[in-house]
Write a structure and sequence with these properties.
By secondary structure, this protein is an alpha+beta fold. The protein has a single domain (about 5-190), classed as Gcn5-related N-acetyltransferase (GNAT) (Aminopeptidase, 3-Layer(aba) Sandwich). About 20% of the residues lie in helices and about 35% in strands. The protein has four helices and eight strands, in the order βααβββαβαβββ. Strands 3-4-5-7-6-8 form a six-stranded mixed β-barrel.
């Protein structure tokens, strides 16, 4: 039987060192099974991988951190249009609670996004997760999956032997918050103008 998950909605500057340590361990355990490379950013008690979120929804149960999603307001460029979004990322659910999923996280995060006054929520996922994400998004109209768009991001660290940016062919997940999906600009490239959340 699953324990009850309680949610903590918290601004980044309200987190204590103990929170970062606990979240770092949670992310290493959550992302590690998909490859050591995915867990590496969370070494050294980092509770973020690229850009730091400004707001987090953290689910807890009797065993500790159960689920997490972060949000960061930023301007992205879709084609030629500058657009304010809340980028959503750092999504993870402890393996024993996998059924908790995106719909519950979105029920918790959606009112926060409305309060932040952003027109859209924005996130990216790998193509291999299309069916999984489509199934987990829940009710129709909550979000739209956009394909055929590449995303350019800056890298967390700059090295002399690699370029400072990367371009990825990913699926875009858009949540209409303050505007209609018909207002989402068209374009084949999105510039994050910063690292991925």
């Amino acid at each position: 039987m699953r324990s009850q998950v309680r949610w903590r909605l918290v601004w980044e500057n309200e987190l204590r060192l103990a929170d970062h340590i606990e979240l770092s361990e949670f992310f290493r355990k959550s992302y590690g099974p998909t490859g050591a490379f995915n867990a590496k950013p969370f070494e050294g008690n980092h509770s973020w991988a690229g850009a730091r979120p400004e707001f987090r929804a953290i689910g807890y149960d009797a065993r500790g951190v159960a689920a997490h999603i972060g949000a960061l307001r930023r301007f992205i460029k879709v084609g030629a249009v500058d657009l304010l979004v809340a980028e959503l990322g750092l999504y993870a659910v402890r393996p024993d609670l996998e059924g908790l999923g995106i719909p519950q996280l979105m029920r918790v995060m959606y009112p926060v996004l409305q309060e932040l006054g952003v027109p859209f929520g924005f996130g990216t996922v790998r193509h291999a997760l299309r069916q999984h994400i489509a199934r987990l998004l829940g009710r129709p109209g909550l979000a739209t999956i956009v394909s055929g768009v590449r995303v350019r991001s800056t890298l967390r660290e700059v090295h002399l032997d690699t370029p400072p940016t990367r371009i990825e062919d990913v699926l875009i997940v858009v949540l209409p918050i303050g505007r209609s999906m018909s207002d989402w600009p068209t374009g084949t490239i999105i510039d994050r103008n910063g690292p991925e959340l």
